[in-house]
Design brief:
Elements lengths: L1 H14 L3 E7 L2 E6 L4 H10 L7 E9 L13 E9 L4 E8 L7 E3 L8 H12 L2 E3 L28 E6 L4 E6 L21
Parallel strand pairs: 2-5, 6-7
Antiparallel strand pairs: 1-2, 3-4, 4-5, 8-9
Amino acid sequence: MIKLDTLQAALEAALGEKILQLKTEFGEVTLTVAPAEYLSVATALRDRPELAFEQLIDLCGLDYSSYKDGDYTGKRFAVSSHLLSVSKNWRLRLKVFCAEDDFPRVDALTPIWNSANWFEREAFDLFGIIFEGHDDLRRILTDYGFIGHPMRKDFPTMGNVEMRYDAEQKRVVYQPVTIEPREITPRIIRENNYGGI
């Protein structure tokens, strides 16, 4: 816990008013910043010798639309980055909420840590979050013709389209989903004298 207190004090001294929230829970420090400060804070986290976060080890999108059973009233989309300082031997979660729910976007971290490249493409593909300044922001997990962003909470579990091979056209075609939803109830088998009783 002393190391986390040292990290928290270093963050407060280096970033000051740029910090929206600084929280230590479950042995981890989470730093939340405003979208306008995201790039400058990330640069400071890497370049300031007292912080020295040399590596970005993960980045993911978050959809808060059903958070707290739908009672959440804040911004819908966020980006959470996990940073590592090898020289200081500490970790940090950097979180930023997108300013707009209709067109979620934040600055790209790829100019700071090039390891963010595929992570940002994944968050774009699955959540629809735009990373401004990313050199190659395109889908990475879904097909180019895919409609929507499948990790959004309002995305239908059946999807919007399905693809199949059409023998007449000799190619893969897309069509609206034809699968009808059904409820599958597990069958319970009860045997007399089960287990020798």
